[in-house]
Amino acid sequence: MRKLNPNLPRKRIVREPSCACCPGCGGALRAMGEDSDEMLDLVAQAWQVIETVRPKYSCRTCDKIIQAPAPAKAIARGKLSYAALAHIMMAKWGYHLPYYRQTQMMAAKGVDIERSTLARSAGYVAALLDPIYNRLREIGRTRIKLHTDDTRLPILAPSTGTTHKGALWVYVADDRNSGSQEPPIAWYRATMGRAGASVMSELAGFAGTLQADGFTGYVAAVHM
After folding, report:
1. What does pTM read for this prediction?
2. Which residues contact 59 (CB under 8 A, 6 or more apart)?
3. 4-31 per-position pLDDT tens digit
4. I need a surface site. Which of 72, 81, 155, 211 has the fewest CB within 10 A?
5. Which residues contact 167 (CB under 8 A, 6 or more apart)?
């Protein structure tokens, strides 16, 4: 096994001899070095409940009620913190763990949550991230060069037993190899089909160079 990453957190455990003197003659001991060995360990993921308590106080003079404001939540009246939502979304979209598997894994650790709750949460998270996505796209369309490509993406068609022929498009602006100091940008868009109209709407206002394959939809987009 290769050497363990030196940037990982480390827990040092020192195993001292069972006695503080020589077991043979009883003489005093002096340090002369040490042997060490490393093992990769896993700290178990732990779910916890954050209880936010806001005491109420009343003024003895005017009876006005004083209370700290409630903290902001990712989802109004929701039960999932920002960290919990980030974990669930990353597991789904980053590591391709379906919601039903996530609920099983969470249940094994004492968390009882419905798959439908996770699915609804994804919609709320998408709405929260939408301004960031739009800003990335806005900045990307001002670049002088964009790279793009698409891949087929089967999308479930509920109650039909089939899938739609969708597509996943990626748009990238990264000219660091050409000496550019601008930070790289990448954004994705999923569509129900592979029509050129999808590219045209995504690249509206783009006036730079588009590097892509021979898909006719790209040609229409750069000449719109």
Report:
1. 0.75
2. 66
3. 888 989 999 999 888 888 888 888 888 8
4. 72
5. 150, 151, 152, 153, 190, 191, 193, 194, 198
- Which residues pair with residue 157 across a beta bridge? 162
SS3 47: coil
pLDDT tens profile 28-58: 888 888 888 888 888 878 899 999 999 999 9
- Which residue stretches of the chain have pLDDT < 50? none
Q: Which long-range contacts (CB under 8 A, 24 or more apart) does 199-204 make?
A: 199/148, 199/169, 200/224, 202/137, 202/169, 202/171, 203/141, 203/146, 203/171, 204/141
pLDDT of the residue at 221: 58
Q: d(Cα 214, Cα 55) in Å, to the nearest integer?
A: 65
Query: Do the beta carbons of residue 137 and residue 168 sit within 8 Å?
Result: no
Which pair of tokens denotes residue 4?
């363990």
Residue 123 has which token pair? 């919609």
How wide is the angle at C-alpha 153 spanned by C-alphas 149 and 155, nearest 5°?
150
Q: How many residues does the chain have?
A: 224
Amino acid 1: pLDDT:
62
CB 118 within 8 A of CB 104: no
